[in-house]
Specification:
The chain has 462 residues and is of the alpha/beta class. Helix content is 32%, strand content 24%. It is globular and about 70 Å long. Bound molecules: NADPH dihydro-nicotinamide-adenine-dinucleotide phosphate.
């Protein structure tokens, strides 16, 4: 029998890789190693979800101070220090990365601080030390990397990777994109006092989400002071001196900024990994092609997380990693079910969404019932802030099963976690209604909406 240095070698210590390695050990795997070229914790912990949410909390205070005045408080003059925030954020990220590292070590996983690339299907080369090791099973969990457009002056822009390490808060920011990252960062910078312009190639941000979510988020972006320019993209970026850049848009508009940021998607991070030497095949979109058990085209090589471009979210990578470990080391073939995954967008107000959008449900089901409501959150009732909360249930009219829940408003991400249980469990509208409301909350609307909403075009046809 061939002797390998490791039973499992994981490339990438992000959410998926760390969970897979620890679970593999728990299932009784022998020698397990994880190689990480940057920092243990991956995108989510180091330069994604976690630091992003800290920045969201920081930026929300500007609105909270105004709100406080409506409730009788005099908060006096407030100032904001980007430098202090970044220092505190960095300390927290160091702490978390340390915990991830210790958890791996304490589980008996060897952590290798190096870049690992394939030499063949069982052989890995560690780039910095030049050492070569072999492994029976190899898991690729290298995640994704921001996509940078191929335009003149592209190098003058930054991505979310660098946004977390800016030395000062920019006065003027131009952000390209209308997805998660662009919308979240537009409001992070705006809330901290920057002038923000967001440039989106479509007409309404957050494509892929329910249309009511999209229009609500879009109008909240504008209402909060973000200048949103639609139907255009960057043509080129010019250095105009003094640290300033000029963005030329394809519609002829020119925008001057201190920071220009791309948030136009992320690509699987496969470059230079030596996949061709191992025989691992890629899908047309550049992602590693895997089956339901995360197995690649090569029997002993698996891949989880963003590098497979299935559903690019941290908790999904974690579940895929755990399913891989159960399949390969736990003797229990487990295919992670990617349906009805709840997700949140940390805009201000935020989004919580699970299941089918109205448009997708109408494509799949014959009779769709829609329940929706829009109201002023109670916390704003003493203010003149016009922001509204939107809630929507997408229901199969034949079975009454709730197919989708979509919320925009304060605490939407917290609410959607619980609504996600109900949607995943396949509960019906009657079962929602059987739950007694919690009063006074916004969430109570989820169990009290009883009037079906008819789209104007269907109403006309009735
Ligand atoms: P998204 O895929 O969410 O959005 C990309 C945006 O860029 C879209 O608006 C898209 O337009 C636009 N775009 C794509 N290509 C171009 C181009 N060539 N020129 C101009 N515009 C372009 O990517 P993000 O970068 O925002 O985020 C990456 C991933 O990170 C997300 O898919 C998500 O999975 C994850 N993420 C999750 C978060 C969360 O859960 N809260 C937070 C942040 C990131 P169009 O709509 O027309 O396609």
């Amino acid at each position: 029998m061939t002797q390998y240095n490791y039973d499992l070698f994981v490339i990438g210590a992000g959410s998926g890789g760390v969970r897979a390695a620890r679970m593999a050990k728990r299932h009784g795997a022998g020698k397990v190693a994880v190689a990480e070229e940057y920092r243990v914790g991956g995108t989510c912990v180091i330069r994604g979800c976690v630091p992003k949410k800290l920045l969201v909390y920081a930026s929300e205070f500007s609105k909270q101070f105004k709100l406080a005045e409506s409730f009788g408080w005099d908060v006096g003059e407030s100032t904001f220090s980007w430098e202090n925030l970044i220092e505190a954020k960095d300390a927290e990220i160091d702490r978390l990365s340390g915990i991830y590292w210790r958890n791996l070590s304490n589980s008996g996983v060897e952590v290798i601080a190096d870049r690992a690339v394939f030499e063949d299907a069982h052989t890995i080369r560690l780039v910095n030390t030049g050492k070569t090791v072999t492994a029976d099973k190899i898991l690729i969990a290298v995640g994704g990397a921001p996509f940078v457009p191929d335009i003149e002056g592209a190098e003058l822009g930054i991505t979310s990777n660098e946004a977390f390490h800016l030395e000062t808060l920019p006065e003027h920011v131009v952000i390209a994109g209308g997805g998660y990252i662009a919308c979240e960062f537009a409001q992070i910078f705006q809330g901290m006092g920057s002038n923000v312009c967001q440039v989106y190639r479509g007409d309404t941000v957050l494509r892929g989400f329910d249309d009511d979510v999209r229009s609500q988020v879009h109008s909240e972006l504008v209402r909060s002071g973000v200048r949103v320019i639609t139907h255009t993209v960057f043509e080129k970026i010019e250095d105009i001196g003094g640290g300033k850049k000029r963005v030329h848009l394809t519609n002829g508009t020119q925008l001057d900024a201190d920071v220009v940021m791309y948030a136009i998607g992320r690509n699987p991070y496969v470059e230079g990994l030596g996949l061709e030497k191992a025989g691992v095949e890629l899908a047309e979109n550049g992602a590693i092609q895997v089956d339901a058990y995360s197995q690649t085209s090569v029997d002993n090589i698996y891949a989880v997380g963003d590098v497979t471009n299935r559903v690019n979210l941290t908790p999904v990578a974690i579940r895929e990693g755990a399913a891989f470990a159960a399949t390969v080391f736990g003797g229990k073939p487990t295919a992670y079910d990617h349906s009805d995954i709840a997700s949140a967008v940390f805009t201000q107000p935020p989004v919580g969404s699970v299941g089918l959008s109205e448009a997708d449900a109408r494509k799949e089901f014959k009779n769709i019932d829609i329940y929706k409501t829009s109201f002023r959150p109670m916390k704003l009732s003493l203010t003149n802030i016009e922001s509204r909360m939107m809630m929507k249930l997408v229901v199969d009219g034949d079975t009454q099963r709730v197919l989708g829940v979509h919320i925009v408003g304060p605490d939407a991400p917290e609410m959607i976690q619980l609504a996600g249980i109900a949607v995943k469990a396949g509960l019906t509208k009657d079962q929602y209604d059987a739950a007694c409301a919690v009063h006074p909350t916004s969430a109570e609307e989820l169990v009290t909406m009883n009037e079906k909403w008819t789209p104007p075009e269907l109403k006309a046809a009735e």
